[in-house]
Each structure stands twice: as C-alpha cells, then as structure tokens.
Amino acid sequence: MRRVLGLVLAVWVGLWILALSLGPVRAQGQQPIKVGALFILSGNFAGYGKSGSQGAQLAAEEINARGGVLGRPIQLVVVDDQGNPEVGVREARRLILQEKVDFLFGIDSSSVALAVAPLTDEYKIPLVVTHAATPTLTEQCRPYVFRTSNNARMDAWAAAALAATLPVKRWANIGPDYEFGRVSWQDFITRLKQLRPDVEVVSEQWPRFGSTDYASFITALMRARPEGVFSTLWAGDMVIFARQAKQFGFFNQVKYFVNPVGAALEVLAPLGKETPEGLLVSARYWFLYPNTERNRAFVEAYRKRFGEYPSYNAEEAYAGLHMLARAVEKAKSTQAEAVRRAFEADGGLVYDAPEGRKRMRPEDHQVFEGLVWGYTKHTPDYPFAILDRLRIIPANDTAYPTQCKR
Amino acid sequence: MDIGFYLLQLLTGLAYASTLFLLSVGLSLIFGAMGIVNFAHGSFYMLGAYLFYAFTRGQVEGFWGGLLSVLASGLVIGALVERLLIRPIYARPEEHQILLTYALLLILEDAVRFFFGAAYRSFPMPEAFSSPLFILGSPFPSYYLFLIGLAALFALLLWGFLYRTRLGVWIRAATQDREMLEALGVNVPLLYTAVFGLGIALAALGGAALLPLQAATPGMAVDAVISAFIVVVIGGLGSVWGALLGAVLIGLLQAFGILLLPEWAMVFPFGLMALVLLLRPWGLLGRPPAVRT
Amino acid sequence: MRLALLLAALALLGPFMSEYGLKLASEALILGLYAMAFNLLFRQAGLLSFGQAAFFGLGAYAMALLTQKAEWPFLATLPASLLVSALGALIIGFFSIRLTRIYFTMLTLAFAQLLYAIAHKWYAFTGGDNGITDLRPPGLLGESLPFYYLVLLAFALAVIFLAALEGSPFGYALRALRDNRARAEAVGIDSFRHLLLAFVISGGLSGLAGFLQGALQRSVFPDYLFWTRSAEAILSTILGGSGFFLGPAVGASAFLLLRVVVQAKTEYWPFFLGVLLLLMVLFFPRGLTGLALGLIKWPTEVRRDASGG
C-alpha cells in the first residue's frame, strides 16, 4: 500500500512540476501591450459582461487599425471572473504572473474589483475599471486604480438632483439588499434632503438580491402611498419587478419611478413593449444621446460588428480602453507610475467618448461626466422602450467630495 | 384596521407560496420515494422556463400549448435521466447520488447558456389574465390567482394520486420499505423512473408557468434549488402537504414579516429553516427516519 | 515514512517554482487541508457535512477582522482563527450531531447559509458583500515563497495529526461508530462526544485553511461561507478518492489544476466539471487515487465501507 501511495504521490508531484513549468512564451520584438480584462461571462449577469468585452474588443481593433499605442498593438485577454471575488483574484494573478499583462481592465462586480484592487499595489499593475460602481473602490485612494465609468454615488447624486426638481415630497425605496442597493439609497436620500429638506421617507423595502417574487413588497410599498419611488433594482430583478409591479397598477399610482440603472439595454430589451412608460431612468450611457457624429459612428460601428445596439457597459469599456490608450501615449510608457502621472496631470486626463467628455479627477482617479436621464417611451422605431424628454445632469452636480489627496 | 390591505398582503403571500410550491413539490416527491436529494431540481425548473420560451417563441398564443408541451417534455426528460444516470447508482451511498445531481446542475447550467445565450427571456401576459381583479378596491393580478389555483389543483391531484390510486400507494410504500415492495412483485425501478419523471415534470411546469410573471435568467437554477430546499426542509422531506405548508409559511412570513421588519426580508427563510431543523429536524409534516439495523 | 518524503519533496521544490506556481501550490495545499478536514468526518465518522464552509469562513473572518480592526499581527491571529472556528463547530455540532444522515447534512448546510446571511447583512462589522481587503501579511510572510512554506508547514502538521488520529483509539472508535453505531454504543463508546470531538477537530482545521486562504487571496468575502465552498471540499475529496488517506489532498490539487487550466481556455468550466463528476461517479467512484491503483493493478486495500445505521 505504501509503495503504491508513494507512486501515486510521485505522479502527483510530477503533474505539478509539469503544469507549473508551462507558461506563455515571451515573444521578442514587436511586443504587444497586453490588457487583461475581467468580465462576468457566466451566470445571471453574463449579458453585461458580454457587452463589456465586446466594447473593449471594438476599441482594441480601432486602436490597432491606426497603428496601436506607442507603435505596439493592444492585445486583449478576456477572462470570466464569474462575479466571484476569489475567481477574480485567481484570474487576475494568472493574468499578471502567467500572461504578463501590462494592465488589468473591466470588472463588473464591485466585490471582484475590491478583491483585485490590492493586487495593483502588490504588483504595480494599473487597473482601469469600467463598470464596478461601489464608491468605496475609489475612496480607498489607491495609486494604480482608475475608474473611467461613473459610480453609484454619482448616480445617486444625479438622481437626487433630478428628484429635487420634481413635485414630490413623499419618497420610498425598493432596492436589492446588498451594498449597492443600500449605499445608493443612503447617498440618494442624504443628498436629496440637503437639496430639499422638506422631503420625507414613507417606506423602505429590501427584497433579497435575486428575488423572483416582489408581490408582497409591491403591495406594502403601494400602501404607504409614496409619490416618488427610488430604486436600484437592476438586471433580471428589474425585469421581473417591472412586470409584476405593472400588474398591480403600481406605475399608475406612483407618479415618479426613479432608477439610475433602469435604462440598461439588458433590461429594456427583454421587457420590450411591456416596459411601463414614464419611468425616469438612466444607465450611464444611452445610445441615442448625444446626437453627435462621434456617437453615431460608434453606435454604427458597434452594430455592424456585433449585431446589436451598444448597452452602457459596451460604451464604457470602449471608452475606457481608449482612455487608457491615451494615458499610455501621454506617458510614453506602460509603467504604472508614468501612467498614473499621465492620468493625473493637467487637472486630470480628458477624453471625448461617444457619450461625451470624460475627465478624470486627479485626487481619486474617478472620471466625472454628464449623465443622461429620460422618461421611457415606446416608439415604432425600436422593439424596446427609448428615452424621451431627456434631462442631462452636468458633471458638477455629481462631484461629491473625496477624502483622497494627491 | 385596514382589512383590505391585509387581505391583499395575504394573497400576495399565497401567490409567492404557490410559486414556491410548484417549484418544490417535485423535490419532495423524489426524495420521499427514492431517497435522492436532487440538486439539479432547480435546473429542470430553469429548463422548463427556457423550453417554454423556445416552444412558444415568445408568442402569447402558444401559452396553453406551451405549458402542455413542457409538462410532457419534463416527463420524458426526467424519465430518461433517471433511467440512464440514476438507476446505475441506486445502491451507492448517498453522497454519490448528491454528486451526480450536482454534476447535472453544472452541465445543465452551461447547456442552457450555450443554447439560449445570456439575455433574459420573458413571456407576455396572456390575454385572459391581462386585466387585474379588484380586491376591496385594490388591483390584484389575475395571473397570481391562476397560479394559486394551479398550485391548489396540483396539490389536490397529487394527494388523490398518492392516496387513491394503486400507483400512488406503491410510491408511498416505496418511501417506507423498498425491499418489501420489490418482494411483493412491484417493478420498483420502473416506479422510480415514473416518480422521477413526475417530479421533474412538475418542476419544469413550474418554471414555465411562472414565466409570464418572471424571467428566464441563466443563473436561476442555483437560486431556485436553494429556495426549494428551504421549503422542503421546513415542510418535511418526502411530504407533498409538507411542501405546501412550507411554501405557505415562507410566503406568509415574507408578506407579513416585511411589514414589521422590512430590513430583514433576506433572513426570514433561513431563519425559519434553522428553527425547524433545531426543533423538528425531519420537517413539520415529515416522518422521523425509520431506524434501520 | 513516505509522507515525510513527500513533504520534503514539496519543500525542496519551493525555490524552483515560479511566483505563479507558488501561489497555485499554496492554494492547492490549503484546499487539500480543507478537504482532509472534511474527510475526517466523512471517511472516519461517516458524516457528510455540507456546512464546512461555516468553519472555513469563520477562520478567515477571524483573521481578517483581527488584523484589520484590532490591528493584531498576522501570526497572532492564527490561534484566534482556530479557536473561533472550533467554537463554531462546537455550537453547530452540538445541534447537528443529534441527527443522522440527510438531516445532519441539511442542518449543517442550513447553519452555513445562516452564517453567510449574517456576514452579508452585518455591514458595519463584516463589510457585507464589500468584504474585508488588504489582508496581505506584512513582512516576510507577504512574499510568495515564505508564505508557501508556512502553508506547507500547516499542511504537514495537520496531516501528521490526522494520521496519528486515524491510528489512535479515538480513530478506531470513530470507525466503529461509522460502521455500526448501535453496536459501538453497546460496548460503551459515547457516540455524541466522539462525533462532536471529530466535528470540532474538523472545524478547527477548516478554520486553519480559511485563515491561510484569506491571507493568500488578500481578502475575505461572505462567499467564504456560501454552500458552494462546502461543495469544494466534497468535490475534491470524491475526485481524489475518499477511501484513501491522502485522497482528498490529491483531489484538491487535481481540482485546482483542472480549474485553472480549463478556465484559461474556455468559459464553460462548469460543464467540464459536471461531465467529469458524472464520469467519476458513474465509472470511477473510488476517485483518481482508486483509478490510479486500478491501472497499476495493485491489490486493493482499505476501502471505505458503506455507512451503516
């Protein structure tokens, strides 16, 4: 028995040696700039990750078509982090140590972003986040973490800025019971009370993140007779909630339903013609705004390449990669310190994305930009609801104070 | 005293309970008759939802036909899975059976993702249910009443089946003493195939029936099986009435619990489950396991 | 002893491994430790626990909270992690051991999920789903090679301890309880105390694994307590072969290696794992170790008996 076990163990050790000695061959010469992108490609939020990776891909292709960055092509390595922080850390490590990427990119899930962030300090690899929205990420003030998309606090402040202009005094909330839902509501109501001290909260509902039945929450909410309801239900939760709430006549009773992530195409598309009209929603990027040459060209190129309209995650990834490329060009290097200085210099790097002008705040590496909101409306031109009566919230209205210093 | 509201809340609780019952009853049945903990139960529920969408292509006219097709498909798929994968491991220790169903969960999840993609699938509300009922002045979706009715109907049908037909008697006998049943000449493996098929068919039908009020999402299987476990553990593994009771308790707990403690909605099901396990581990309507020598 | 040779080999390999290899090897050893802790209950005592994640998570959170909030030195939190997870096992075991078979499994699962829900909701204390990050041990242990040796040391001590346990009267008592509880009790073995002790030991070792994992991954999240974490211990054990002493450790390495290699090539890792598991259960129930033995056509030896009672 012992002999056999020893043999088996020898094989085991041998396997390890073999596996660990394998690694990517370092090609000499025209070395590409490798960008390791982590997105959620499986599970309930796979749609978002898919959009993100597609947007990044389009950007990489465009950059390479015009000669790359510093004369080197961008090579995108996309991995599935499954929305799981440990998988994220493991894959990030693999990207850094095996694939030898120069940058980490993307990340949909806030917990994955927070788990990967310490690695940027450990390995001096910059991370450019294009989706994960927890304000905590940038409030940690890490030198090599950058976020080119807006975060949940900006969304909440924009919502509050809008809400302050509405004829609403009685507010309620229904949000997913996890950090994103909780902090968004906290930020929203705190900011709203600063702008409109006369508002009151009449109900708060906290269904489990991933709930499939909202009936009891809907009726409890309706009983409190709110005039306005704030919500950060997103993805499948929002689709399900919208359908069920509509059946209860929720949207007839509640005058204003405000959701900063409700205009995601991942939500509007499945709802199709069933989307209630008049929902006041935003999604960090809306493909029909602004009506500029730049945006139209992007939408057209994306549609041609992928056969669908770009959702916000696609545009954010697209813009994020372009912005990173610009930083590297400005730094004339891929070294973390040089790139950081490039992002921070001159009051913060500026990039004109399809959605508008992005400027990175040097203190916390958070990009600020105008945010577009609108009321859902059906038109014959599209199979899903589009945004009408657009309201643009300028960057200044969402520029919350940061604790970081530079 | 706002009677109208409390009645409404009661109904929403029962509505949620109905969705839980349709999801869980098959799990309880399978465990009761075969002793198998089917980790893939939520996966068949998910498959039912996606198949319903595929059969009807999202066209509302196909509603009734779609439901029937899913029920039939569930029976066939369940029977096949049982015959090919589960039968070979009857005699194995339970962890092998658990692992097998867990493997099925993994496979089905990716299979669905591969064939249907990552987008959420919905189904429009059938015309018959598109106008709400008014309960003391407040609108209540009639589809929820349909679901409550469907759940009640299935509970009754299952009860009738298990207690009034010979096949049902055999199934109940199998939960108590399989060897004796075989000794009496009953073809137990065939019985098992039938039971498994039935359980899966119920799960698939549940998934399909819920689609007009929910959505088919790629990750719904894991969530569903956890909910099903909670219901079945509370009600009693192996008891159909237990599944109903468990579902009703959870539904009502959510409906009224959030009026008192809205912060804790997420914890209610786990809390109740832990409580039941501590006080009556075999579930409220379950039977204490027979001591085998 | 062969075991000593293996450990020495793993130690000697250290300086030759790449940074990435060291991380992977550390993770494999930690998972192996966790799986071996599970198998103590499973193989020796015949208990299928689906709640090991609870103790794994408790150990991890103890380390995380003490280093972040109370600013304890890293190594000082080790005894605390062991204590907290063992205590958790004592409490959970006290309620669970009374039950048998599927009900035991269900209750352990329920407790783990309850702990998960608490960790998830208690933002102020645990950070909720934002977790606790920046858990890199300061100084030497923050480097890959020294940390690898720490993990190897922990693994070695745990394995030696478990081996000793197996050959001890306690081990014999456990196996007697597993094979025929009524008979064992009839000869005077207190089933409750023995099983509870096994549960506590298993919990403590799982907590040790969690402690190490948190430091390795630089962060701790409520995920550590989720039931899929319990499933990892079970999967590794079955993959490697629960009937053999080091089977779980072999299975853990195989599981990890496979996951890393497959995930690098495709996003359909769950499908791959599912098919693998299916094949294992249907055709190779004795795991990889059993498979290897079958191939070498060595005479079969101690195989796990079917659980009785």
UniProtKB/TrEMBL annotation, chain C:
Membrane disposition: Multi-pass membrane protein
Major localization class: membrane
A Pfam family annotated for this UniProt entry: BPD_transp_2
Keywords: Cell membrane, Membrane, Transmembrane, Transmembrane helix
GO MF annotations, alphabetized: branched-chain amino acid transmembrane transporter activity
Subcellular location: Cell membrane
Domain of life: Bacteria
Residues that span the membrane, as ranges: 28-43, 50-68, 74-95, 102-119, 147-174, 195-213, 233-258, 270-296
GO cellular component: plasma membrane
PANTHER family assigned: ABC TRANSPORTER ATP-BINDING PROTEIN (PTHR30482:SF17), HIGH-AFFINITY BRANCHED-CHAIN AMINO ACID TRANSPORT SYSTEM PERMEASE (PTHR30482)
Protein name: Branched-chain amino acid ABC transporter permease
